[in-house]
Structure formats: C-alpha cells, structure tokens
Fold these 2 entries.
Entry 1:
Amino acid sequence: MDLAFFGVQLLNGLQYGLLLFLIASGLTLIFGIMGIINLAHGAMYMIGAYLVWDLTMRLGNFWLAIVIAIPIAVALGLVIERLFLDTLYKRDHLYQVLLTFGLILVINEAQRIIWGGDVHSVAIPAPFDASLQLTDNLQYSVYRLFVMGVCLALAGVIYWVIRHTRLGIIIRAGAVNRDMVEGLGINVRTLFTLIFSVGVALTAFAGMIAAPLTSITPGMGDSILITCFVVVVIGGIGSIKGAFWGAILIGMAETFGSVLIPSIASMVIYLIMAAVLLVKPRGLFA
Amino acid sequence: MLHRYPKRVAIIMLVLLATVATFPLWGPAVFGSQSDFMLEKLTLMVILALFAMSLDLLVGIVGLVSLGHALFFGLGAYTLALASPEFDAASMWWMLPLVMLVAAVAALVVGLLVIRTKGIFFIMTTLAFGQMLYYLISTAPFAGGTDGVFIMFRPTLTAGETMLLDLDNPQSFFYFCLAMLVVGFLFLRWLTRSYFGQVLDGIHDNEHRMQALGYATNGYKLVAFVIAGVLAAIAGMLAAMQYGFANPAQLGWHTSGEVLMMLILGGMGTIFGPILGAFAYEILLYTYEHLTVHWPILMGLTIIAAVLVLPRGIAGVITDPPWRRKATSAEEEETPDDRRPRRGPLPRARRVKP
C-alpha cells in the first residue's frame, strides 16, 4: 500500500466517520437529554436519502431538494415526538425500544409503499461533480471533500451551541440532571420537542448529503443505526465529544478494516466496542 | 414478579394446553386440508413461546432488557445445522446437550462483558453482540453466508435400535416441542420461586440493597443470563428443525425485537404471559399477512398501540382485570406498569406544565 492510496483511505475513513458523527450526535443528544432510545433513528436517515432522491427527480436540482427536505424532516420529528414519545418519558427504556421498533416497521413499510423496493442513486451535484487528480491513477471526489467540510462545520456549530449559548447550558445541565433542570423552571417539554426534531433533522440531513455517495436502498437505515449505536456506546452515551471521536474511530476502523482485513471487516467495530467496554464500561468520554 | 398465580391463570393455561395438545384431533375438522399447515404454524408458536419465555427470565424477572437475545436463538439453530452429519441424522441424545453447551459457553463469554453494564448500556451492548455474531455468520464461508445452512435430516430420538419418537413426523415433532415448552415452563416456575429466584427478584427491585446485604449480584445476573441463553438456544434448535434450515435472519436484531414484542404483548415477569404473547403475536402476524402485502405497517401500529395502551400485556388483563380494579389515583394511572415499590421516599417531580 503506497502513501497516496493510504492517504485516500484516510480521507475516506474521515469522511465516513464525520458522516457517522452527524447521525450519532442526534442519537446521543436524544438519549442524553430525553433518556429515549430511538431505534427509528436509522429509518430517518433512510427517509432523508429517499426524500432528496425523490425531490431531485421532481425538481431537477439537488440543492433545492435539500432545502425543501430539511423542513419535512424536522416536521416528521415533531410529529413523532408529540404523538408517540410524549407518553413514554416516565416509562422504562423497554417501552421506548419497543415503540421505536414499531415505528421502524411503519416507516420502512411506508417507504416501500411510497417509493417501492428498488435501489436508486443520485448524481453528484454541480459544482462538486469533479475529482482531484492525486497521482496518475488515483483520484479523489470533490464532493467527498465537500461532505467533510459540511460535517465539520456542523460539528463546529453543535460544539458552539453546546459550549457557548444559553440553550447549550440547559442541554448540558439536562444531560446531568433532568429533574433539577425541571425544578429550575425550564420548560422541559419544549426542550424535548426541540432536541428530538434537531436530532432527527441531523440524521435525515446525513442521509441527504450521503445520497450521492451511496446507493439508496430500503434497508440502508438499519445497518447504519447499529453502527451508530456502537459509536455512541464507545464514546459514552449522551456525550457529543464522545460521539465525535467514536465516529472518527469507527469510520477509520471500518474503512481500513475493509481494505486490510476484508474477511473479518464487518466484525472489527464490534471487537473495538468489546475492548472499550472491557476497559471503560461506560464509554470513553462518559 | 408473580409468586402465586390467581386461580384463573391456572385455568386459562390448562385450557390452552388442552386445546393446543388436542389439535391433531380437532384440527382436521376445523381447518380441513389446511390442517397440516396449521399444525406447522402451531408448532412454530410453541417454539417461539419457549423463546419468549426464556427472555422473560432476563427482562421480566431480573430487569435486564436484552436486545440481542436472538444471538442464542440463532446459535442454537446454527449449532444444529453445522454439527449435523451431512448425509446422516444426528442423535438427539448428543445434539441437545451440545446445543446447550455451546449456548452456555457463548452466554458466559458475552455475559461476562455485558453484565457489567446497566440499563441503556445493557440494551446497546447486547444489541451489538447480537449483530457481531450476525455479521460473523453471514460472512463466514462455512456457514453458507446469507443463504444459511440447510438441515437435510432431523436428529433422531432413539433408545438403542428402537425409535422412541419419530421427529420427522410433524405430529410427533409437535408433541416433542410442546413437551419442551411445558418442561421449560415448569423449570422457570420452579427457578423463580426458589431461593435463587428470590435473589433475582430482589435485584430487580433494588440492586444496591441486595449488594449491601452481601449478595454478589453480578454472579446471580450472569447465571440468569446463561440459563436464558441456553433455553433460547433450545428454542432455536427446534425452530431450525421445523424450518429445515438455519438462516442469519434468526440471529438478527429484528428477531430480538420481535421476541421482546411477544414478551410485552403477553406480559413480562409472569412466565406464562410470554406464552400467550407468542401465540397472540403469531396469530396477528398470520392475519395481517393474509390481509395485505404491507403487513409490517399493521404490525408496527399494533406494536405501538400495545406499548401505549397495554403496557402490562395480556397477562396484566388476566391477573388484574380492569373491570375488577378499584378506582386508581392519577399517579398510578400514569405508570400502570410500575408495580414495584417506589425507590425513594418521595415520588419524582412532575414535569412543569407549559
């Protein structure tokens, strides 16, 4: 493996990791603040990808499709939170797991009814449909660099909001002691709705910008969900910082795993998780 | 956990057992030519009931919510498939102990890692371990990849040269599974009422207090995890015999979610509830599949409805019928599933209304 190839894999791993971070950050926020395990998180990633594919087909413009798809995703999160999750906050995790499991079945099947079971793809949009010539036979897609930039920018925004705004203070306090935040007169009800919608929007957005890079298939949400669970467990549940470093670690591990040791590549991330749990049962940044 | 069942539970269970056990007598009259097919369905329900019951030991009795229980179910199926000689039938006398041993070892290894975690971490780590085996099996060349492995010959049950029970015969296999379910039920009933079961119940209510009393709670939880895994593997082995193949889907987390659903639908912590849940789930599934190709949407909505309105499952309706319940306070209405004594001296703060 020469240096340029290694570099490309490094970039790929970074790009995949950053994408995972967008999804995992929503997952970990929703759990950290609301105490809800959202199994339907992966399904929302899939919905994001399908929405953008459908809208690009109709409108002929990828960027316009994203602009329209984001409010739809936020609205979907709002409806789910208000309709279903509202009654579950005081119940055991078990019921949340089951309810969101039921939601997966409904969302996956709704997707089949609306969009069918075919595999789709979205063309890489202009002006990023070029690639950089690294060496004679190695190229790197500009769109991937763009995705990386967007993910990093969003990670920066999330970091800024959590560290330096009043909302961030409430979120951090809520992750430590929800009852106390309630006791101090914060409207937790509104906060929950906001967090859930933002979390869902983040994962749906990840699906949207990932759409030109992956094939859009009915089961795409399920596999990414499990990977993100691993990310969140490794990083420490509820920790955004943990989600970030966990996502980078898993992104690298999966990318290099599939290049270097393809026979057990799909297991590598679980082995890492087991190792982390042995040393730190509550995750690296908890 | 219920230490003593109300009398009507015993009556319902005995009636159900009698109805199911006599199916070969009344089945042909009711279902006609469909009877053989229905017997297969019924056998599957009995097997899934055993599977759901094994999970109840973890979720309902100890309070450990596992989202990776299909790991052991699938492991049982694959152990049978891979250990069976290719052109010959295996003997049940070594196959059953082998399946139990493999599951026990796997449960011990996984358990040692996951028992240290609690609550949501337990859910996520069991899920991850289940998926780990799923990917291992579905990519392993010896296990047939995503196609799975076919089982050409069911194991035989013989004593010397004479066949005790012809497991190839659907009817005798049905009775074999039913016997396994009854034995499993009696075993779990005995276990939960034993000293060991009392400790598990104590851990469910307040683990810190049990530790303070000097119990090595992790050891108790680990043993419960292993027992639940072994029972699930037996169910998985029976399922593989019934289907005639072992498939990665049997290991996947959707299977874990489904069995959890059977448990909730039936009523957890009751041992008999999951049996009702497995039957109810399969009957619903069968009905929906006949109604529409988009049956998952109906199933999903049923799951959501069950979680929202029937948190204690069918068993809750039987042991504590709504029409017999006294007027309950608003506090109890909010958490009807919480029958355990409150942990702290004060109820939790209510959410501030906007």
Entry 2:
Amino acid sequence: MTIASSSPPSRLPLRGAEGAGTTPRTGRARARERGGDGRLAAVFVAPALLGFTVFLLWPTLRGIYLSFTRFNLLTPAEWVGLDNYVRMVHDPIFWDSLKVTVEYVVINIGVQTVSALAIAVLLQRLTQSAVLRGIVLTPYLMSNVVAGLVWLWILDNQLGIGNEIIAGLGFDRIPFLADETWAIPTIALINVWRHVGYTALLLFAGLQAIPNDVYEAAKVDGAGEWRMFWRITMPLLRPVLAVVLIMTVIGSFQVFDTVAVTTAGGPANATNVLQYYIYGAAFGRFQFGYASAMSVALLVVLSAITVLQYRITRAGQSDLG
Amino acid sequence: MAAVTTTTTTRIRPLGRRPSLGRIAAWAVMAAIVLVTLLPFYWILRTALSTNPGLAAHPGDPLPVDPSMGGFERALGLQSTKEAIAQGGAGGGLKFWRYLLNSVIVSTLITGCQIFFSAMAAYAFARLRWRGRDKVFGLFLAGLMVPTIFTLLPNFVLIKQLGLVDNLLGIALPTMFMTPFAVFFLRQFFMNIPSEVEEAALLDGAGKVRIFFRVLLPMASTPIMTLAVLTYITAWNDYFWPLMVSYSDSSRVLTVALAIFRAQTPQTGTDWSGLMAATLIAALPMLVLFGFFARRIVGSISFTGIK
C-alpha cells in the first residue's frame, strides 16, 4: 500500500534534540523557545503508541513466531521449526484454496475495476450529480454479511427472484451458490456489488484532479469521448488507478465474510478460500501454529503483489504537472 | 481503506446539452447501474413484509405477498416460539435489541476512542517537536503495510490471555487506540494548518494542550467527522473479528447474530421473511447515519490514502 500525497518524512521540521534536559529552572521556558515538547508529546502519543505496540506490532511478531510452533491454545506453544511450512507445501487443500482465492481475486478485481472505471467516468463526464454518487455508495454501507444474505436470497434456486427471471425467460435455473463452477464467480460478483461504488468514488476523485482544459482543448481538436478516454483519462488517471488496484487486490485476497454466510466453503471445497481455510484450521481444529504459517504465506504473497504492482504500474509517478 | 480529504472538488462542466445517441446510451447505462444498486434494497423490504407461505407461492410477485409484520416480529423476538414456528421461523430466541445495543456500544467505543487518540498522536507527530518523532512515525507508517487480517489470530490469543473473550471490550480493544491510517490521515491535515494560527494563540498565552483542544481540533472538525462516520460504518459491519471473540448473547453483535439466524434453518426451509427483516434492521442504522452525512462524505472521499 502506498500513500499518494504523503510528504516524505525528510520534509518534517528538524526535531529539537537538544531542547530537553536543561536545568529545571529554565527548562520549560527554553523548551518553549526551541520548540521541544518531549513531555507533552509523550502524553499525546502514549495511547496510540500503546495500541500500536500491543495490538499491531506485537501480534505481527507473535504471528510470525507462532508459525514455527505447535500451538492449540491450551498448552504453551512448542517450537517445531519449519514443520508447519513443510506441511503446508505438502497440503493439497492449501494449494487448492490458494487457487480458489486467486480465481476469486481475478474475477472480483477484473469486473470491479472495469465497472468502477465506467461508473467514475460516467459520474464525471455525464453528470456531476452528488445524489448519484450517494446512491452508488449505498451498498458499501451494508456489511458483507448483509450483502451475502440478500444475494443468497435473490439467487436462491427455488424462490429467488433472480432464478424466477431466468426461468421466466425460458432458461434453466442456475444453482448459483450451490454449484462448484458457479459459486466462486457468484461470490466475486456479490462483493463487486458491495464495493464497486466506493472504488468508483476513489477513481472519481482521481478524475477530478485532471484539469478540464485538457478535455476542452481535445474537444476543440475534434476528439470524441471515446478517444478522449483512451488518450487523456487513462494516461492521467494511471497513478491513481495503480494505487486503487493495490488497495483493492489486498482487500480482495482477504475475502472471508461472504463465503462464511453463503457457502461455508462448499460445495466440495469449491469456495474454500485461503482465509476460510485458515479460520477452520485455527478455530475448527485448533491448529494455531499451522494457521499462523498459512497467514504468513498470505502476508508474503500480498507483500510481493504490492511491490510488483507498484513497480509495474509506476504508481509513484504522475504524468500531471 | 477509507481515503478521505477535505479539498473541495472543482466542478467540471458536463458535456453539451444536445442529446446525442452516445449520451442517451450513457444515461441508459447509468440507469441500469442505479437499478442494480438499489433493487436489492427494495427486495429486502418486499420480502420482510411478506409471509413465508406467500413467498413460496408467489416467488416472482414484485409486491409484498400477503403483507404482514410477522418477519419483523420474529426478528425482534416479539413472537412466541409456537407462533414463530407456525410462520416458518426457527423459534430460536433471537435477542435483537441486545445485539443492536452491543453493536452500538462496540462501534461507539471504537470510533470515539480511536479518533480521539489518533488525533492526539497526529498532533504530536505534526506539531510537537520531540526526540525520535520521525522514527516513531516511520514505524506507524510501516504498520500500514500489515494487513489487518494477519493480526487477528495473534490478537485473539492475546485477548484470550487477557480474559476478555466474549466481552464487548475484547471486541473493541484492538482498534480502540488507533489505526495507522487514522493517525496518518489526521497528521496530514494538521500539517496543512498554517503555523501562524498556532503562533497567534501561543502569543495570547495559550498552552499547547489548550491550542490542541480549542484551536486545532475544532478546525479539523470536518475531516474528523468524515473519518468518524467511515470508522463507525467499518466497525458496525465487521464480522470476522467479533465472530472470533464472541460466543454468547452478552457480546454478540448484529453481523454475527445475522449469520447465526441464517444458520438456524428450520426444517421447513430458510425463514426468508424473518431473515430479510433482521437484515433490514441490521442495515438501517447505517443507512440513517449515511442519510445525515451523505453530502459531506461523498464530497470528501478522495484519494489521499489507503484503507
């Protein structure tokens, strides 16, 4: 993940390293003059730093440590070296769930990115309506659980309106979430429904940064909307698109909720995504060590993808200005 | 995830008014998008207001079949077990008011504390001078790289050791103090406030604590509000973490309760009417919240950061 408009830390004003620790009498006044606020800063940073250390830094290190142990919550973790990783490499279900996850991510991100781009461009070039932007964002307000349940009902094989329409048009009913081939694409599209609006608004914000003069000039030169999209919008949106892609891919790999409420990993492990398998290993079979090892694997995959995407798409550079 | 700024966007004039074929097609696409976005919401309402036998008999009817409040009564636990089973419910006692209250407590606790502590830290990173500041901030930035999901398992082990499993505090605790994103985002905002504002207050004899509470915090009310609403929505919608930590009614939040409601399928088939009523009740507070803040949020979702 990267941050688009972050100023590099080097731009920070120099810290007053020499400001603290003078004689008690003048210490306070001096600190004020030189701007050293060590004690005050300690108070202000303390809660966040405590939370950061206890619930982010420590768990991250501990998660890596646990991946080298056998641990069932009840007895202390026992160091087993690389055993969990060896097991993982030889676990066909792990590889299968990785495959299912990648399939999910490809469909989810593919459809979502193209749709979000289309919606963003429509919101920019067709209308500037804030109401429409609000409407597009509504599914994002629902939890994944709610989105999953609603579509489970709409796509129900017997009573769902989706299948009613399909049957009404004279086609065979599709067992969307109960079929091995259909289940993953269906879950991927349900999550597109929930997230596409938010992604579109992020891209829309990126589009707003493109100066209107560019479009005006292109129009004077006789360029049509289609041509302007490929020649102006796409190249100038690229840095934003790249960061949004990295964000959404990372989120997409963590799919769990929708699977948990719609298919519970089935049918026949067809939707046993990695995070669901990890959850099962930890809370179903109490193999916290093995679950941690798979989490580390996911972490490595995500980091690699981030670096790779960042490189390929040159996310840090802008063609603007 | 939440990427927010408060810059006002420059309006770009829509294309010429002459309706061309392309424009008509574009509007048609837009209408289709709105339809796909909103129809599921109507379908929730339509189903919730129907009875289960009615739904089975007329699955394609666009209006509520055999209109009844039975679904809502079951979701809110207002029906007796016998009544509920007769109408196609599971009859399992669901204490929706309890779950609703739990969700409110957890989300409020997370949002209030997280934003306040993050703002304090952001101020220290942006405006105070102290030894090691850049290093600590660099550490926070590195924290942005760790996917939340990676910390869930070890955090569960920690919460269990703290004896906070099946406790609302245990659900809130990991995100109560800060998220790297909130700190980063608010720091950006504080850094953009001209230092003259602060210096003027300093000359008036105000201390830095006072300046933070009386000057900077009020100036940051818009980004803080946006961040708070998005944090609230995220906390409210979270499922995975509460699922790990809560086991009983005392700490169950709405998302987890919904999934359990779904799993309690009665023999006659899923209680769709009750399930959709419960879904609506779970989603409604966020729709109302969004209704109040929509204009501000929609205008300020932008591309400054990451989730």
